[in-house]
Design brief:
about 500 residues, mainly alpha, two-stranded antiparallel sheet, 22 helices
Length: about 500
């Protein structure tokens, strides 16, 4: 730990020539980013819907039908599981259902809920909110399938440490069909993408945006991003050194606090304008199916809603299955059912709250603002001190996202390079270094590259989910039968 601190302390001094460094790195990555963008954001139907979003949405619809609407009929049981009603203290694993849920939520609830929703409403109009909700509800089924498989094919070592996620069930999916080499390739590809995504979208982007918000409120911080990054790296390091149990202990406290803080402010504004609620929902519904020609019509509105939901809740990406694999349970289906709450909380609740505030305050039209600025302006019109609250919220969102993605990246890293103290500390050191880099330099191309790696995770992951969906369906039917018969007993 002392060596890690020494390296982190030295790095800010190395970044004084940050502009030159940034430019050189960006030039190196820009050609790669351009190639990846042509693939991931290819629009086969010229409707503004990238292939990755189509892939995610089709998968979500398929799994919803395949699992007989588990997203709806499993909701009540999911709440019972999160409360711990069925927790058996003898079950193998490292964290509770609630801790696994909050860890996974901390990776998705963030800037997408604040800035991303504003983009969707600004471009697609109020109707985008309806399709965002629809996509969130469908995404619940994708989360169910991937997290069930994550637990079912996890590995538990002699010390009780759990490793799981798409790397393991992708390998198995192809092996069962006599394509072992394809299984190794797909699992390895997912792991590489996950490591890259953890350094960029799950780390550098979060640190960069957190500092930008603080810098905007406190001018004395201008130009001191490296030192902010150093402090943030120390805070993150103090958590991630302890592994998933330490991460879960933090997220189970931070995530509910964030949710109450942000949703509470949203509800306050909605209640203050209760007389507009029915009109706003009417506007959302009408706009969802009619669509303003200036907003791209019906298709344009639908596209914006689905895009934002897909990018926000990460349903189908497979990352959440890594966190959920560590849960204490001997019934894989239970964690799949718990996981379906994630898109509901992230998209159906928090994203919808953001959209309602923007629409109620009239900030969705006539304001030349983008992303987080638009959201901040909407809240500030009712709560004058909200920009300061937003700074706190964004910092917490960034912090929680980083500690969760550090775990995702670590498990992918050890899958590629083996499980040992040396490989673990090597990854954690790199992760902390990237926090300082993200806070201090403008590595736009690198961050774009890493964000695309997160989205690209969906391609191998959903392919594996298709192959294993029949198996999950059978497991679900068996589990629900045993719950109904009383064979699976409550412990509370």
């Amino acid at each position: 730990m002392k060596k890690i601190l020494a390296i982190l302390l030295f790095l800010p001094q190395m970044l004084r020539a940050e502009s030159t460094f940034s430019d050189q790195v960006n030039l190196l990555f820009e050609p790669i980013v351009n190639i990846m963008a042509k693939v991931i954001f290819w629009e086969p139907f010229s409707a503004g819907m990238p292939i990755v979003v189509i892939w995610l949405v089709i998968g979500a619809v398929f799994f919803t039908l395949r699992m007989n609407f588990i997203n709806l009929r499993g909701f009540k049981h999911a709440l019972q599981l999160v409360r711990g009603d069925y927790d058996n203290p003898k079950d193998k694993g490292e964290v509770s259902h609630f801790q696994a849920l909050t860890t996974a939520l901390s990776a998705t609830v963030g800037l997408g809920n604040i800035a991303g929703v504003a983009v969707a409403v600004a471009i697609g109009g109020p109707g985008a909110t309806f399709w965002m909700i629809a996509a969130g509800l469908l995404g619940m089924s994708s989360k169910f399938v991937e997290c069930t498989l994550g637990v079912k094919y996890r590995k538990i070592d002699e010390n009780g440490e759990v490793s799981g996620g798409p790397m393991y069930y992708l390998k198995t999916a192809f092996e069962k069909r006599n394509f072992p080499f394809a299984g190794k390739v797909m699992a390895g590809l997912f792991a590489i993408l996950c490591v890259g995504g953890s350094f960029g979208g799950g780390n550098m982007f979060q640190a960069n945006q957190a500092f930008s918000q603080l810098e905007g409120q406190f001018s004395m911080l201008e130009g001191n991003g490296a030192y902010f990054g150093f402090i943030l790296a120390i805070l993150v390091g103090a958590v991630i050194i302890g592994g998933i149990k330490s991460i879960a202990n933090v997220t189970e406290k931070v995530v509910p606090f964030m949710a109450v803080l942000y949703v509470g402010a949203s509800l306050f504004i909605i209640v203050m304008n209760y007389d507009q609620i029915f009109d706003v929902f009417g506007l959302i519904f009408d706009s969802a199916f009619s669509g303003d020609a200036a907003k791209g019509g019906f298709v344009g509105v639908l596209v914006q809603g689905f895009r934002r939901a897909a990018f926000s809740n990460e349903a189908g990406v497979g990352s959440a299955a890594i966190a959920h694999s560590a849960v204490k349970t001997n019934e894989p289906v239970t964690e799949g059912i718990v996981a379906l709450l994630e898109p509901f909380i992230d998209t159906v609740v928090i994203c919808t709250m953001t959209a309602l505030v923007i629409i109620i305050t009239g900030r969705h039209t006539g304001y030349d603002l983008e992303g987080a600025q638009l959201t901040s302006s909407a809240f500030e019109s009712v709560i004058s001190w909200f920009p300061m609250l937003l700074v706190v919220a964004i910092f917490l969102f960034a912090f929680s996202t980083m500690i969760s993605w550090s775990y995702y990246g670590l498990k992918a890293w050890t899958y590629l390079f083996g499980q040992s103290k040396l490989t673990e500390y090597a990854y954690k050191l790199l992760f902390l270094l990237f926090i300082i880099l993200g806070s201090s330099v403008s590595l736009g191309a690198v961050i774009d590259f890493s964000d695309m790696m997160i989205l690209a995770m969906a391609f191998p992951n959903i392919l594996g989910l298709y192959l294993m969906s029949g198996e999950v369906r059978a497991d679900l039917r068996d589990y629900l039968t045993r719950v109904k018969s009383g064979a699976i007993k409550k412990f509370k």
